[in-house]
Write a structure and sequence with these properties.
This protein is an alpha/beta fold. It has one domain: Aldolase class I (TIM Barrel). Helix content is about 40%, strand content about 15%. It is built from 14 helices and 12 strands. The strands form 3 sheets. The protein has an 8-stranded parallel sheet with strand order 4-11-10-9-8-7-6-5. Strands 1-12 form a two-stranded antiparallel ribbon. It has a two-stranded antiparallel sheet with strand order 2-3. Helix 1 runs antiparallel to helix 13. Keywords: Flavoprotein, FMN, Oxidoreductase. This is 2-hydroxy-acid oxidase. Its cofactor is FMN.
Length: about 375
């Protein structure tokens, strides 16, 4: 499989440039695996539409000469309120995979979230030396799930992110039509569940078959309560869209909820994340941090999320496009651009920092 050189063929001036660059080097089925959503991709498209509907009301005559995006996530200082989202099987797009992405996150000073389905073991990612969070899918084998938590703790991960919107993988039609399967050199390095994901099926995605066999579809609030007792690490709950669930999450002792529809990859027709962010933030009422993902593609998007009540955001696909186009250098450039764009958006909106951004008014026409 081809992959990009360490410097992008053409200068990248925004995150979308990397998606175009990645398209020229990735096989079509891998590109579809990363870009695609579930069903008719209604929610995938709606995430962008909804973000673009949010207009900011800038303030003027404010001193922004010392504008900064400095903030905190899980009470730890960060140079911008951004973390790298968990994305599975990153060696699909570049031989260095998660290693390169984790080095890029370290260089940017932002947390890197390692997926249960990472193609590089947790221990190799924490050894890079940045802030690493571990994303947990609860497995049918409860002992193996607990073993993953213990491995993450022992390796030095600083938080556990439990994803709760995947009882099984959404029906991603691009993968079904491509009869998508993992190439032999890419595997789920943190779990041992055989080679199901590598065997092509006539009418399904091998990755979906594999997760259907490996993941528990019986994860409940009791499961969350048990996990809260099993680890002292900060706990994030990813995949929350209903305010009622966010309230219950706070009552269960989570440190953050991630308002997310899985980037349009699970329930097609689910509400865009940004549309429910304000009511989730209001319902949580400072009981825990509120992060947002699904569709973040610019510094302006980060500002929109902050203005609507988010503590910060997760960014996923853009890092993968940067990684595909130019390896670690591409992933670093994505995060550098995001930081530049966020500072630009802050200053132009009359905000000298993140606290002021959270006071900005927004307008959604109609």
């Amino acid at each position: 499989m081809g992959h990009g050189s360490e410097t992008a063929a053409a200068p990248a001036h925004c995150l979308a440039d990397f998606e175009r660059a990645a398209a020229s080097v990735l096989p079509a089925d891998v590109r579809d695996f990363v870009a695609g959503g579930s069903g008719a991709e209604v929610t995938l498209d709606a995430n962008r539409t909804a973000l673009d509907r949010v207009f900011l009301v800038p303030r003027v005559l404010r001193d922004v000469s010392r504008c900064t995006a400095d903030s905190t996530l899980l009470k730890r200082p960060v140079p911008m309120p951004v973390a790298v989202a968990p994305v599975a099987y990153q060696q699909l797009v570049h031989p260095d995979g998660e290693r390169a992405a984790a080095r890029a996150a370290k260089a940017a000073g932002v947390p890197f979230t390692a997926s249960t389905l990472s193609s590089v073991p947790i221990e190799e990612l924490t050894a890079i030396g940045g802030t690493v969070w571990f994303q947990l899918y609860r497995l049918r084998d409860a002992a193996q799930s607990l073993e993953l938590v213990r491995r993450a703790e022992d390796a030095g991960c600083e938080a556990i992110m439990l994803t709760v919107d995947v009882p099984w993988m959404g029906r991603r039609l691009r993968d079904v039509r491509n009869r998508f399967a993992l190439p032999s050199h890419v595997r789920a390095a943190n779990i041992s569940t055989g080679s199901t994901a590598h065997r092509r099926h006539a009418d399904s995605s091998a990755v979906a078959v594999h997760t259907g066999q490996a993941f528990s579809s019986a994860t409940t609030w009791s499961s969350l309560a048990a996990l809260r007792k099993q680890t002292r690490l900060p706990l994030l709950l990813k995949g929350v869209l209903a305010a009622e669930d966010a309230v219950r999450a706070v009552e269960s002792g989570v440190d953050a909820v991630v308002v997310s529809n899985h980037g349009g990859r699970q329930l097609d027709g689910a509400v865009p994340s940004i549309d429910v962010l304000p009511e989730v933030a209001a319902a949580v009422n400072d009981g825990c941090e509120v992060l947002l993902d699904s569709g973040i593609r610019s510094g302006t998007d980060v500002l929109r999320a902050l203005a609507l009540g988010a503590s910060g955001v997760l960014v996923g696909r853009p890092l993968i496009w940067g990684l595909a186009a130019a390896g670690e250098a591409g992933a670093r450039r994505v995060l550098d651009l995001l930081a530049d764009e966020l500072r630009d958006a802050l200053g132009l909106s009359g905000c000298d920092g993140v606290a002021a951004a959270r006071q900005l008014r927004t307008l959604v026409p109609g």
